[in-house]
Amino acid sequence: MRILIIGANGFIGSNLTQRLLENTDWEIYGMDINTHYLNDYLHHDRFYFTEGDLCINNEWIEYHIKKCDIIIPLVAIAQPKLYVTDPLKVFELDFEQNLKIVRWAHRYKKRLIFPSTSEVYGMCTDESFNEGTSDFVYGPINKTRWIYACSKQLMDRVIFAYGRDYGLRYTCFRPFNWIGPRLDTIESARYGNSRVLTQLITQLLNGKPIQLVNGGHQKRTFTDIEDGLDALLQILTDEASSDKKVFNIGNPNNVCSIEELAEIVRQKYIEVSGKGTNEIPGVETVSEDEFYGSNTGYQDIIHRVPDINLARTKLSWNPSISIEESVKKAVEYFYTHSELPN
């Protein structure tokens, strides 16, 4: 089996590459613009890596799509601050550049495993979000925060149409806040361009209070990367159960507010660092205008909880790792790899 992972150095890509090299005999072909998370695997005899850019290296990408059996394009901008500060960049990468991958996968009759997102549900009011029945609910045009969700849901629709009308073999998976080591870089978090967990950890590493946007009352579902990879491996190895399906991949047992997450981060940081409670900064509330900038088009989501019955029945998948364990692993990773004074 030959697997092409575009975005192999990213959070999901690097962890998936590691899992596949350690647990299968498959050949992995990877491309990314950086290698820092892959350095331990660059000389592996079944890993073939090329440093390149999805926006530029079209000839290499098309050739390897023809060569490989399964295509996994993981390149996307998934940082909320950039949704409001640079929405066109988000659309151009997340939709336009990935569209050519979908078309090549169809042209060369390859199987496509595509990362959707839990954000496609937007401000859906369902108690839990179902892949087949829940509506996508977005704000007005001036709320540019929704361009990421719109780009991803449009790609989902294109992939569905290729599968229904032209026989594309595909599976889409929707991660619900996967967390763990390598989630983002500390450098991106310094500029506010990371996802929420990395942002909270980095603020403590900087010796600054944790900032809760609008009080941190928004609720999210957090899923350990290892649980997520279990689902992906099942998708990869069982095409019969996963073909032409969309799966929510999240842990409904790990639902908490950002305020509650911040307290877990503080406690795990105390455990990992060995510092006393009084030595660790507390939390402070900031407005969305203070954090994202005024009039930037930010709009938040009150809750985001998945219905995972489809993944449970079709993939025999049941996430089991607690949010406390996941957060501790992430804190340990960033604490160990931080170049900041501890």
Separation, N- and C-terminal Cα atoms = 44 Å
- The helix content, as a percent range, equals 40-55%
Basic shape: globular
**Numbering strands along the chain, what is their spatial order in the largest sheet?**
3-2-1-4-5-6-11
Largest sheet: 7 strands, parallel
Strand content: 15-25%
DSSP strand count: 13
**Mean pLDDT over the full residue set:** 93
Task: Give me the Rg, rounded.
Answer: 19 Å
User: Which blocks of ≥5 consecutive residues have pLDDT under 50?
Assistant: none
> How many distinct helices?
13
In terms of structural class, how would the helical and strand content be classed? alpha/beta
The H/E string reads EHEEHEHHEHEEHHEEEHHEEHEHHH
Give keywords.
two-stranded parallel ribbon, globular, 342 residues
Description:
The structure is a single chain. The protein has 342 residues and is an alpha/beta fold. It has 13 helices and 13 strands. The strands form four sheets. A seven-stranded parallel sheet has the order 3-2-1-4-5-6-11, sandwiched between helices. Helix 5 links the parallel strand 5 and strand 6.
Short account of what is shown:
This protein is α/β, with parallel strands linked by helices and 342 residues long. The protein has 13 helices and 13 strands.
Layout of helices and strands:
Blueprint: E1 2-6, H1 11-23, E2 27-32, E3 47-51, H2 58-67, E4 70-73, H3 80-85, H4 87-107, E5 111-115, H5 147-166, E6 170-175, E7 178-179, H6 186-190, H7 196-205, E8 210-213, E9 219-221, E10 223-224, H8 225-237, H9 239-242, E11 245-249, E12 255-257, H10 258-273, E13 283-286, H11 288-292, H12 309-315, H13 323-337
Parallel strand pairs: 1-2, 1-4, 2-3, 4-5, 5-6, 6-11, 7-10, 8-13
Antiparallel strand pairs: 9-12
Helix pairs in contact: 1-8, 4-5, 7-10, 7-13, 10-13
